Predict the structure.
Amino acid sequence: MSALKKAKGFKKSKSGTYLTMATTAFGAFGVAKQIKKARAENDTLRLIDATVSAVAIVTGLAVLYRELKRLGDDDVLLG
């Protein structure tokens, strides 16, 4: 398998899924900061926006976790 095909398959590998989960979870720090700022300013609209973003992050992580379980042993990069 060529290196280019391995690189294209990275997103569908366990390693790629772990990396995607990490970057998605890292977005939670920004959302937490947004929630804290919205509460301090008593801004309901921003608080709702941050809450929806937090729910999107949780949902995204759940989908990625399901994909990780689905990958199982047939990892693309391991051949």
Observations:
- The radius of gyration is 17 Å.
